[in-house]
Write a structure and sequence with these properties.
Structural class: alpha/beta
Helix content: 10-25%
Order of helices and strands: EHEHEHEHEEHEEEEEHE
Strand content: 25-35%
Strand order of the largest sheet: 3-2-1-4-5-6
CATH topology of the largest domain: Alpha-Beta Plaits
Low-confidence stretches: 222-241
CATH superfamily of the largest domain: Regulator of K+ conductance, C-terminal domain
Distance between the termini: 21 Å
Mean pLDDT: 83
Number of domains: 2
CATH architecture of the largest domain: 2-Layer Sandwich
Number of strands: 12
Largest sheet: 6 strands, parallel
Number of helices: 6
Radius of gyration: 20 Å
């Protein structure tokens, strides 16, 4: 796979190295010529000193051949511009952008060419909440321009899903169970698999689905109030690396 990474900071360098080790063809774009020339990266990484916010620079770097663009500079404005150019000017199929400041996350959507936005603070918040919350729905990731989200809930006593088969949950159209974590093991759910207290249920759900619809099906009755679904989870639509 051909991947273009914009920004040769710690995150960009790590991504380039890991992807190259994984056998991918990586293009690393760095605005600072001195930094670009000083990098010692593995075979499979092509480094270019160029401004990824300029169309001509991206054209010269042959970004049009990339299957994925990853914008991970330390500036949110630059990451948005890079994402927009990659999607609109070069039709890169998959654009992933880093959100440095969580308050800017709302901008990182399909209007700016972003397929997946990753915000480290929000992602960490979601993971922490997932680790300590039982019976509460936690949004872990949001992606595909904000139209799809990954939600986790650890089933608690009193959940309507307790003792129900996956096929009988009555999930609305646009929501599906994609995995279970049971006794520390990831399980691919079958339609006849019966859920029990302590199961960590991972769902993909459309953003159009109301929170209450999922809450009423999965959370205990006592948690059906306004706080039954956490709004603080990390969003990889991450919320932002």
């Amino acid at each position: 796979m051909k991947v273009a990474v914009a920004g040769a900071g710690k995150v960009g360098r790590f991504l380039a190295e890991e992807l190259a080790i994984g056998g991918h063809d990586v293009l690393l774009i760095e605005k600072d010529p001195a930094l670009a020339s000083s990098l010692d990266l593995p075979e499979g990484v092509r480094t270019v000193a160029a401004d990824a916010c300029e169309v001509t620079s991206l054209l010269d770097a042959r970004v049009d051949e990339a299957e994925v663009m990853v914008a991970v500079t330390g500036d949110d404005e630059d990451n948005l511009v890079i994402s927009l150019l990659a999607k609109q000017e070069f039709a890169v199929p998959r654009v992933i952008a880093r959100v440095n400041h969580p308050r800017n996350h709302w901008l990182f959507n399909e209007s700016w060419g972003v397929d997946v936005a990753v915000s480290t603070p929000q992602l960490l918040a979601g993971l922490v909440e997932e680790a300590v919350s039982v019976g509460v729905l936690v949004r872990l990731l949001q992606f595909e321009g904000g139209n799809t989200r990954l939600i986790e809930v650890t089933l608690a006593e009193g959940s309507p899903a307790q003792g129900a088969a996956v096929a009988d949950l009555g999930l609305p159209r646009g929501a599906t169970v994609v995995a279970l974590v049971r006794d520390g093991h990831v399980v691919v759910p079958r339609s006849d698999m019966v859920l029990d207290v302590g199961d960590e249920v991972l769902l993909l759900a459309s953003a159009q689905i109301e929170d209450d619809e999922l809450r009423q099906l999965l959370a205990p009755t006592a948690l059906h109030g306004p706080h039954g679904l956490s709004e603080d989870g990390g969003q990889g639509s991450a919320a932002s690396p």
